[in-house]
């Protein structure tokens, strides 16, 4: 057992921290000033600079297309980008949902699909959206997805309604990956498929952006409600084969959760840093907040909880690298359960230490909080994951009893 | 001891519930569609209708100007308006900060001040703002207020910077009540005064609206940052006398907190109602949420906590009526400590039961949550009130020990 | 609505507080010194004195046998006895389980049963136990009770195993009220009956006292595991009629919960008082605990929570008096859910403020804590009550949906 | 970074788990039956067997006297012993406070001291106590210790009062290590010394055992209150030199906390195991607890929290091994803050799942809970550690601000 980051990771951490200090943090106020659905003006400069520094596509384990890092190597880098989650991930071409979509195309896409969509995504020229969640069903169980994808000659025709399609409000978003049912009569886990739908295909109606506690989440390309009304795409747009949608979705979720959780830890570190700065600079009742017991408890608890979360996420990354996503299933659920709610707690305390300013646009805290709160739902609410993890924990006892 | 509402209260509850059902709830979607800083188009109709029904100025205990209700009679009515806090309070001319400002003018204003400002406020023709909090100081201690109000001939000249001046973004807002220091050399509690500043006075610069999470809180007239730069008003605009600002602020806070807390309880009831509706209509893992233990715990805990909160607020109202605001000091603090955080918890659970929809514009929950969260700061953060209440609790033990 | 205690209650409060100060608190150290299963030596003196002062059988609403107080009048008196729960309730002849047993006999007992058992209980000459919970079944659902009571000629024969039969370890305990099945084929709620079993009847085996976090709870007569092996009693020992056990149990539970909850509030007040005394007398890191923010938060939260609990319990008592136990069903559940866990929290903080002493025999806190913790189970665990209360809350929404 | 236990650790884990299954768990009921202050009869057999299997003195990193394991290697073994904390640690000669005392003697004892006391302790022939905490002062700050150790000719004379001297009630306890002030005028951290006091020295009065909730904690040798009244011991009994008491205490605490925390994790695993067994075997409301959402949440949360705690403790052990106890200071505090309260929470839920049985002597849960609760005080209450950790976290911000 060894808790040291390896050399390459440490080197990349140094480079990335320098990039944050020199480029990202200074760009933050500019970023805030841009309008709703376009990426901040400074973004193209940041991307060019990140690329120049070799901080590009770090998320992709496939060395042909990406940096070839393991999950364990990438995790601490994703954490650092989480300190400025509205700028840094995209600047490094490591922003959701593009990362998951690129992994998916690298792993399951045909050469033609890769050439047409993966290449411009890897170049940071376009963005993409992942259309899975539906308003009418509990989408945490993928088997419930009701959108239809029907074969008709050389085409597939898509009909359905999606929401929380993150990224789809971004004008640069050109491609949607849509999950839907190709065969409602197949066994439950073979009914679903995934298909590539260019955003400008006739019949694709981007209805509106969903709000997140008043935010449009423009820097993330928003969260669209989309209606697919007889949307026809060539048959070769299907990813892998019919009935493979569920399996692809499962493959996509593991790394996605690791990335989310590591960025959340970066958000928590940012919140704790801001809380400490506030504590040493603000006085109430004749002494700095830093000397008040209640604020000290918040700071100590935040530190203790962050350390625990980070170790659990890193161990999960290590398990994914050594025994595979399936072997790490329980741990992946565990980090999904523990991280958003804990980080939400930390950010709440950081907000409280800032008084009214904390909930306003003058600090990033309220927006970070909303992001953490949202992740208590993303990929299924906490309750679903706890239920599932408990059933796994109980399994040996049930077997024992059955004998 | 008797826990029954009196006859008049019960009659008003019936009338107000009918008004909610017939007019307010149906207007909610329209209200959401209007633009940021103007009141919803339907508002004037709602106000006219409320007035016609005798549901007007219920908050004002002074029978000459208002309904002449006691705090105990008004509290359950304020609760009902809290079920639709962006429409109902204003429709009844019972919205903050106007209520506090009207009370203040009714109690401390000169006949001329009352004629010029109280009358149109009571008529619902204009709105007002209360300018107390400042960005540079911990304003929970009113003695810290740094804005200057200086006598110069027949005028006072105001210089300073305020924020969280609720209501001031509303185009209908015509008058600001500003707290500031007239005599920095006086004893601490005699330094402050309050003065009436028409919003269009030269030197008044409304800088921007503060955001609350991502909301502008337009329906409440927003929360302005305002700079006062050599703002000159006639000397007769001073309220009561020089040095009375602190005493007036104290008098204003007690009823304000009761109103806030009762509306919060209405918000919690609304949240619980939505949670129950969702629970009976949404199925996950093969059975309705209503039959799932975790959701049942949320519902039960919400009910149990609401009942406790309501009783504490009602007792506080009763104390204010029977022994005065000063005698009810501890209880006023207690409800300020208990209510926002508890209601925040209930709304969080209601959101969680709604999945992604819960944090979006499709339900009122996220916005209600943000309002509850904000009230953990308003009139001083929870921590300040807990500290103060504890010191009072400890006082007899300290005396005992001193002897 | 009126939050004042009535005159008689206030007068009894004054008398009881004087009795606590003059007799009960001074007796506490002596009480601790006595051996395990016998009542403290001083108890007979305390009982005589309480009786002399008219503080006797206050719990019994029936004016023929008891003080004739309403639930609302008795509740604040029960609270006061909770401040010294190992001495005061018994000193006033108001200790569980005797109170419930006396109510039961007063309401359902035959004249002969009353003469034989109720009279000596009312005189404080003997004690009693209530034998309901069984180790093998989830006894929170009374319908699960498996003990058999079978008619055989002029006798009933009892067979079964009970535990947590509170009071049965006390040498003064002479009578057991046993719940068991007389007719397993009857409809579910008509299967059970209650019967009087003298503790010295052949076949009654008191196996052992159950421990409560290391305590034997000797002052309460312990909690016995009892085996009934062909225990034969005369047929006239049956209470009311065959099949009425469930109804009697329901009638017994409401007042029992009110009493428990009010005593718990007294325990919380005692804990808060001790926490405050400690806070003003103990110094750490150069200043008294009373000036440390974390301890101030504990004190403030304790006070705020106690006030809410008390009001909810009082309102429940008022409802029982005005609309009956059945009409107060939801509120009775609500206080059972809220009170033990909240008081446990307060006592935990009081313990923490005392350092190591807090968990030891040097303060009553650890024992009070164990009592509060135990009440999270008594009459069914919190989870059962929350489930039931939620189902009631959901009922109107389910009906609405069904239409 | 690597999360695998090394080979030697894995081999010892296998051996120790076998020993638990074959010897320890079967001995548990016998152990419970023995009387208060003597070690269970079976203990000598268990010790002989552990020794035979090479599972002896595993805690001692010094290869001359012990197993020569690193902290990181020993930690997972300590965890396993925590599953039966009243038997296993002593069976392996790895029980507190002997472990800390042996380390202390191995590191700071003179050859004579080692021969006289360390050898029989390593052989498991005698037991020892550590006498630091005092009733009159906040002993979490060691500088407060008031007991006097005064030189008088060839002797030292000890006067003072200690409590919570763990182990001292055990008849096998022969030696006390006492901390006290040799020079009240020295700088704060040089006033204290440690000295060896045979338990049968005249003037040593073992007053009583402190209770922990209702437990005497007999299996751990209890927690004594001891008065030292002119207790005279030879000068050579002083450990190291005058004024070194504080430094020795610091050296002793780090490993002590690691051991406590690892055993606590074992206790949590035991609690979770019992909760799962109960969940699959107990039915309420028509289905097993294992299928009820609330119980599933407890199980999932327990697993998620245990995983995080264990990783934090293991990382702390690794830091102690690689950068020393001083370099691991923050992490040692972090585990002390996080572990007892989290394990207490898990055990509380396990108890709740067991109904009344959970708080009784029929399951180990209540006793495990009491042990976890106690550790929220041992070596200073949580609040002290949080305060200290926060100050460390704030230090860089304070420096930054100072510049």
Tell me about this structure.
- 4 copies of one chain form a homotetramer.
- In chain A, 50% of the residues lie in helices and 15% in strands.
- The first copy, chain A, is built from 11 helices and 10 strands.
- Chain A is globular, with a radius of gyration of 22 Å.
- In chain A, strand 9 and strand 10 form a beta hairpin.
- The mean pLDDT of chain A is 93.
- The first copy, chain A, has a 4-stranded mixed sheet, covered by helices on one side. Chain A has a 4-stranded antiparallel sheet with strand order 2-3-7-6, with no helix packed on it. Chain A has a two-stranded antiparallel sheet with strand order 9-10.
- In chain A, helix 5 runs antiparallel to helix 7 and helix 9 runs antiparallel to helix 10.
- The first copy, chain A, is α+β, with helices and mostly antiparallel strands.
- The longest helix of chain A has 37 residues.
- Chain A has 3 domains: 116 residues, Acyl-CoA dehydrogenase/oxidase, N-terminal domain (Butyryl-Coa Dehydrogenase, subunit A, domain 1); 117 residues, Butyryl-CoA Dehydrogenase, subunit A, domain 2 (Beta Barrel), CATH 2.40.110.10; 156 residues, Butyryl-CoA Dehydrogenase, subunit A, domain 3 (Up-down Bundle), CATH 1.20.140.10.
- Chains A, B, C, D: Belongs to the acyl-CoA dehydrogenase family.
- Chains A, B, C, D: Homodimer.
